[in-house]
From TrEMBL:
Source species of the chain: Cognatishimia maritima
Upper lineage: Bacteria, Pseudomonadati, Pseudomonadota, Alphaproteobacteria, Rhodobacterales
Function of the molecule: Catalyzes the ATP-dependent phosphorylation of 3-oxo-tetronate to 3-oxo-tetronate 4-phosphate.
InterPro entries noted in UniProt: 4-carb_acid_sugar_kinase_N (IPR010737), 4-carb_acid_sugar_kinase_N_sf (IPR037051), NBD_C (IPR031475), NBD_C_sf (IPR042213), OtnK (IPR050007)
Keywords carried by this UniProt record: ATP-binding, Carbohydrate metabolism, Kinase, Nucleotide-binding, Transferase
EC top class named in words: transferase
Catalytic reaction equation(s): 3-dehydro-L-erythronate + ATP = 3-dehydro-4-O-phospho-L-erythronate + ADP + H(+); 3-dehydro-D-erythronate + ATP = 3-dehydro-4-O-phospho-D-erythronate + ADP + H(+)
Protein name: 3-oxo-tetronate kinase
GO molecular function: ATP binding; kinase activity
EC number(s) given by UniProt: 2.7.1.217
Length: 422
């Protein structure tokens, strides 16, 4: 059968996050890195397109997303999903709202919901306010995000300036009553203008109730978790046939490389934990890289035993990141590190690495591009929102995982390996 569900994500780690949660139901999920240039043939029932549009200018994000939607429509998709960050990362201009309105116009619908909640990773919404763990979004580390500092926790206030239509809320009290109450509330909010409805969710049970109420809507928007129940709901209602077989992950050679360009608090802890286990690790210093290039990193890599999964990282604490950025410039420092980690990925592949553990959204973009990975099949989840994916690179079967900065436990890098060898 062709595609039934088509999703578009605004960054790469977010796309694997969504794909991993859909694949929990055992369905085959195909992930495309960028919109394919060729028309769809032999597509999966669940297709996710990963874009890099989170902080792009609004017009560019809208153009890229509607192009992706066109491809999914051509693939036969009937239900659509717009995936953004579980911390609603966006600027005052967008891109969450403008993209949603462009998708609504192209799909021909006048109402959609917004549910970035991801309770397993500590993101919950109550009375329209987003919490990260126990902190309101605007008091969490996201208030200092370099590109999209989140200084308000109220999703209605954040979304309203980004859209032309009305913004409303279906709150937790209604969600607690059940799916019929949500449907009724949504019907009551429909009007002459486009209807954008934030929906509260504090626990997985809420997500199941909301998904049940909204599974028939042509377009849903949110983080990954609200999409998690959809495959089973589609199968149960019969709109999707049961012959949609689950994906059998192929065996991969265990030689691995860990590449970390994320500087989040969690990735810093993961790098420290890995090093504390005595793993071989090489730190990229942006100031030395700027003077001497990647030669020393490449020579170090050539001397490593890939069976022991060495780590190359630029991950650093905010003070050193800032110091490097002050000297080199934010974009130049980031770009240089991304290109070095991408070059390390190719070199590691040439040396025999077949498993790639990558930390950081931008870093993941650079590495997947370098490896020529344009279509990934989604396999087992290592941590909530971080699955292993499989593809071919340079004529070899490889496994790759793209970890969002904030996700995974401290032992993520060893857990990732254990998940495949177990
Ligand atoms: N030591 C460093 N100094 C300056 N910039 C860095 C350093 N280490 C990594 N970076 C850059 O910071 C950015 C991290 O972003 P990203 O990979 O998306 O991680 P996250 O998912 O945590 O946001 C990348 O552009 C990366 O190249
Ligand atoms: O929804 C989420 O939190 C993630 O899927 C995500 O999008 C994270 O983005 P990065 O932190 O930039 O990797």
């Amino acid at each position: 059968m062709g595609t039934y569900f088509g999703a578009i994500a605004d960054d790469f780690t977010g796309a694997t996050d969504l794909a991993g949660l859909l694949a929990r139901s055992g369905v085959h999920v195909s992930l495309r890195i960028g919109t394919p240039e060729t028309p769809p043939v032999e597509t999966a029932a669940f297709e996710v397109i990963a874009l890099k549009s989170r902080t792009a200018p609004v017009a560019e994000a809208v153009a890229e997303t509607t192009k992706a939607l066109g491809w999914l429509q051509a693939a036969g998709a009937q239900r659509f999903f717009w995936k953004y960050c579980s911390t609603f990362d966006s600027t005052a201009e967008g891109n969450i709202g403008p993209v949603a309105e462009a998708l609504m116009a192209q799909i021909g619908t006048d109402q959609t919901i917004y549910c970035p909640a991801f309770p397993e990773n500590g993101r919950s919404i109550f009375m329209g306010n987003l919490f990260v763990g126990q902190q309101p979004l605007s008091e969490s580390p996201l208030k200092d995000h370099p590109l999209t500092p989140m200084r308000d926790s109220n999703l209605m206030r954040l979304l309203a300036p980004q859209v032309t239509g009305r913004v409303d809320l279906v709150d937790r009290l209604t969600v607690a009553v059940g799916a019929d109450a949500i449907r009724e509330a949504l019907a009551g909010l429909r009007g002459e203008s486009l209807s954008h409805v934030i929906v509260d969710a504090v626990a997985n049970e809420d997500l199941f109730t909301i998904a049940e109420a909204c599974a028939g809507m042509p377009l849903l928007t949110g983080g990954s978790a609200i999409a998690m129940p959809l495959p089973l709901l589609y199968l149960r209602s019969g709109v999707l046939s049961g012959d949609n077989k689950s994906y059998q992950a192929p065996d991969t050679d265990p030689r691995a490389i860990v590449l970390s360009g994320s500087c989040s608090a969690m990735t810093n802890a993961q790098v420290a934990h890995y090093k504390a286990q005595g793993r071989a690790a090489y730190q990229l210093d942006p100031l030395i890289l700027a003077k001497e290039g990647p030669g020393a990193a490449m020579s170090w890599l050539a001397g490593q035993d890939l069976a022991k999964s060495p780590l190359i990282y630029a991950t650093a604490k905010p003070e050193s990141v800032k110091a490097a950025q002050d000297i080199l410039g934010v974009d130049q420092a980031g770009e240089m590190i991304e290109q070095t980690l991408a070059a390390c990925a190719i070199e590691a592949r040439n040396l025999g690495a077949r498993r790639f553990i990558v930390a950081g959204g931008e870093t993941s973009g650079a590495v997947t591009k370098a490896l020529g990975a344009d279509q990934l099949d989604v396999g087992p989840e290592i941590a909530p929102g971080v699955p292993w994916c499989f593809c071919h690179s340079g004529g070899h079967q490889i496994a790759i995982t793209l970890k969002s900065g904030n996700f995974g436990q401290e032992d993520f890098f060893t857990e990732a390996q254990a998940k495949l060898t177990a």
